Amino acid sequence: MTTFAAAPSASATKPASGRIFNFSAGPGCLPDEVLQQIREDVWNIGGSGIGILEHSHRGKVFDKVLAEAFDDFRKISNLPKNYHVLFLTGGATAQNYMVPANLKPQDQTADYITTGYWAEKSLEQAKFYGTVSEIATSKDKNHSYIPAESACKYNSNAAYVHYCSNNTIYGTEWHDVVNGQNTWNQRIPQAPAGVPIVCDMSSDIYSRPVDFTKFGLVYAGAQKNLGAAGTTVVVIRDDLATKKARELPLMLQYNTFAKDESRPNTPPVGAIYICGLVFKWILKHGTANRHCLDVLQELNIRKAGHVYAAIDGSKGFFKGHAEPNARSMMNLTFRCPTPELDDKFCKDAGTAGFDGLKGHRATGGMRASMYNAMPEAGCKALAQFMAEFARKNG
Amino acid sequence: MTTFAAAPSASATKPASGRIFNFSAGPGCLPDEVLQQIREDVWNIGGSGIGILEHSHRGKVFDKVLAEAFDDFRKISNLPKNYHVLFLTGGATAQNYMVPANLKPQDQTADYITTGYWAEKSLEQAKFYGTVSEIATSKDKNHSYIPAESACKYNSNAAYVHYCSNNTIYGTEWHDVVNGQNTWNQRIPQAPAGVPIVCDMSSDIYSRPVDFTKFGLVYAGAQKNLGAAGTTVVVIRDDLATKKARELPLMLQYNTFAKDESRPNTPPVGAIYICGLVFKWILKHGTANRHCLDVLQELNIRKAGHVYAAIDGSKGFFKGHAEPNARSMMNLTFRCPTPELDDKFCKDAGTAGFDGLKGHRATGGMRASMYNAMPEAGCKALAQFMAEFARKNG
Q1: How confident is the model at residue A196 (pLDDT cuts 50, 70, 90)?
Q2: In terms of DSSP H, where are the helices of chain A?
Q3: What is the ipTM of this complex?
Q4: Are residues B260 and B338 in the same domain?
Q5: CA-to-CA distance for A389 and A373, rounded, in angstroms?
Q6: How many structural domains are present in chain A?
Q7: Catalytic hit among A111, A200, A204, A342
Q8: Contact B46/A75 with Cβ under 8 angstroms?
Q9: What is the pLDDT of residue B15?
Q10: Within an 8 Å CB–CB cutoff, is residue A350 touching chain B?
Q11: Among A41, A112, A227, B253, which lies 20 to 30 A Cα-Cα from B385?
Q12: Are residues A272 and A328 in the same domain?
């Protein structure tokens, strides 16, 4: 195991490892120590003489990897026994049909809150399975905000309420705002009693404390905060895992995976193994007095703070896309005064050793994705680069 | 890149690398040089400063990885332009519903030839989409043979004929048998004109020459001959990629992946990357005068030959499960005179450095899986171990 590279100086952003700061929206960067462990284990895991990718998914080595991945995931969120953890495939996008297919009868509605591109895709794909309701949206302002609770017109007979807790493209996130102040804690829609909440948590899962018991089903593509592309983690309550809204092929039923430890057939062994390493890395942030997710939240607020301060301190040179109280800790979206300067920013940043900063075409400008594995040094260095860029080009 | 470990002596089966001979049925062993490349690239691929698992699936580095994977796969089989190559997820098992869902209207039959466990599962799952026909089966003799062409009662109006070219559990494979002699070349069912052939080629794809133009659709889980668990390669003819047997969610349609280079959403980046390395490794077997798959076939015949010779030369101590002309080159199934000796065999083999030899409960006994990446030295060493075991325990 290596330790993290030392924080680089402002003028030398490339750590000695030869690796650069990768602000990609996903797949995102992984912790250095996780990568070093992978390098050992693909050759020969635990002295077995066989690499992790080559072990039978029914053998003892993978049994242990899988059991620990389940256990560690549960430990992080103190997940009670009436919830299953599943490792599925097809990306979070596959959940767009799996959720309504399993949970929503054709003529029962489900409530969707559309706060971004992926939330809209979720709604669109759910229509294949009958009635759906878009009960609130932020489309009117190019998804720069999160609708207020009072704007959400829930149906009391809905099969579920679906929302996306962090909008990767637009850089907004659901936060509890108390007396006009952003607490950076998770805000959850106040669905009517008995209506389960379904959340696409792909881009902010385990970036701060989460209480899964408030949800019926949560899903997250692994390639942002949990591991590498190739598996999607689903947390599902017992009664929903066995719900049969319609007949489905076996491999499209949540229960098939819940019953058989996510391996009714050969699962994505490597992707699950990597999640397992990341779960252990998350747990290591905990101390005797503080829960690992409290520590990570504090770190993520500080990390995002460096870059938001660079935006707010630029005397109007940089403009953020998200309204302040909806600002994401994970994906920070901002623009220069002109598209030409945006291009120059990305080019100069690339030369300086920052990668993946070009924004999505839906917002233009830049996006800095700073998932759990992005070290604070990278955020500080980016903030400093931004300040210098604004000074030189303002 | 390292080169292969030197062939071990008969009494020392563990190569100097610390790695042992892994006869697992899948996930199976990967070439040493592929693993070494992975170890480099997960840290920093091509000097980009970012590991392969952390690159955006829309960025230049993955663009190149993906383009080369497609190109190299096509080169290996000289695949014509009217076929698509897709990287999907969900394992070959997901094809059990995707094939009929996309290709078979509810009231049109499809013909299934059931020569093993997975072929039976394919048939069973297809029933969800209406009429199907089991036109031949080897169930009467515990799947120890491949039905003769004359036993296959094709329906001329079938949507397709489905078969599995190699039966991992039973150790049988479809071979052309000419004048009673096994040619070890691929036998393909003689479906009526116009009826596409669909083949589950998971456990013998690219172990010998293959002409995909004889097929409408071929699928293969990557974890045996193509890479690691986490992606399924599908080869599909143009007209079938756009066939709409029924309305389906976008992510269950082949055409969604055919249109968008297998990345309508985040694909399993790592699993595709590993396939790409294995494709290059396969191509390297070619010489100026010989096609890579001819070379691999010759090697695989020789590799299997060592172990089959150990069975046949054991004076009845070992009994093969498969009938001689249906013997698989990839999965070799055999038994000792008693279940107790089977257990002893697996235990002693483990001590000697051979892993993954325990057979499936459907056949009992042993199974030696010898995919492309298993070096001939491993097969020779196993054959010698078998001879010694038979001598000591016979």
Answers
A1: very high
A2: 32-41, 60-77, 91-103, 117-126, 238-241, 254-259, 269-283, 292-312, 339-352, 376-393
A3: 0.96
A4: no
A5: 25
A6: 2
A7: A200
A8: no
A9: 61
A10: no
A11: A41
A12: no
Which tokens is B160 given?
């397709």
Residue A27 resides in a domain: no
pTM of the model: 0.96
B10 located within any domain: no
The residue range of the domain holding B346 is 288-393
Q: Side chain identity at A52, as an amino acid letter? A: I
Q: Of the candidates A253, A283, A313, which is a domain's last residue?
A: A283
**Active-site hit among A224, A243, A303, A358:** A224
Q: Is residue B8 part of a domain?
A: no
The torsion angle over the Cα atoms of residues B69, B71, B74 and B75, rounded to 10 degrees, is -110
Tens digit of pLDDT for each residue in A14-31? 566 889 999 999 999 999
B118 is a catalytic site residue: yes
Among chain B residues, CA nearest to A252: B94
Residue A43, sorted as left (phi over 0), alpha (psi -120 to 50) or beta, turns out to be alpha
What are B247-290's pLDDT values in tens digits?
Answer: 999 999 999 999 999 999 999 999 999 999 999 999 999 999 99
Domain containing residue B297: CATH number = 3.90.1150.10
Q: Check if the beta carbon of residue B136 is closer than 8 Å to that of residue B148.
A: no
The answer to whether B205 and B92 have CB atoms below 8 angstroms apart is: no
Q: In which band, very low, low, confident or very high, does the pLDDT at B343 lie, cut at 50, 70 and 90?
A: very high
A381 touches chain B (CB under 8 A): no
A94-130: per-residue pLDDT in tens? 999 999 999 999 999 999 999 999 999 999 999 999 9
Domain stop point among B268, B283, B298: B283
pLDDT in tens, B65-109: 999 999 999 999 999 999 999 999 999 999 999 999 999 999 999
pLDDT single digits (tens) B344-364: 999 999 999 999 999 998 899
Residues on chain A touching B92 (C-beta within 8 angstroms):
265
Q: Do A355 and B49 touch (CB under 8 A)?
A: yes
Between positions 92 and 151 of B, the ones with CB within 8 A of A are: 92-94, 96-97, 101, 125, 128
For residue A262, the domain's CATH number is 3.40.640.10
Of the residues A39, A200, A274, the best mutation for testing chain B's interface (the one with the most B CB atoms within 10 Å of its CB) is A39
For residue B14, the model assigns a pLDDT of 55
Best of A50, A262, A371 to substitute, by most chain B Cβ atoms within 10 angstroms, is A50
| Inter-chain touch B89–A92, beta carbons under 8 Å | no
> Is A20 inside any structural domain?
no
What percent of chain A stands above pLDDT 90?
94
CB–CB of A212/A218 below 8 Å?
yes
Tokens for B151?
A: 């036993």
- Residues A167, A293: one domain? no
pLDDT of residue A326: 98
Least confident segment among A360-364, B59-63, B69-73: A360-364
Tell me which residue in B49, B97, B248 faces A14 most closely, judged by beta carbons. B49
Tens-digit pLDDT profile for residues B114-125: 999 999 999 999
What b/e string do you get for B282-305 counting C-beta neighbours within 10 Å, with b at 16 or more?
Answer: beebbeeeebbbebbbebbeebbb
Instruction: Examine the residue annotation and report whether B224 is marked as an active-site residue of this protein.
Output: yes
The residue annotated as part of the active site, out of B72, B111, B200, B342, is B200
Indicate the average pLDDT of chain A: 95
Question: What mean pLDDT do residues B310-322 have?
Answer: 98
Contact B89, A89 (CB under 8 A): yes
CA distance A50 to chain B (A): 6
Q: What is the pLDDT of residue A372?
A: 98
Query: Residue type for A273, please?
Result: Y
Q: Give the whole-angstrom CA distance, residue A368 versus residue A318.
A: 13
Residues 6+ apart with CB under 8 A from B14: A49, B8, B20, B353
| Res A223 pLDDT > 80 | yes
Residue B59 contacts A where some CB pair is shorter than 8 Å? yes
Whether residues B336 and B218 share a domain: the answer is no
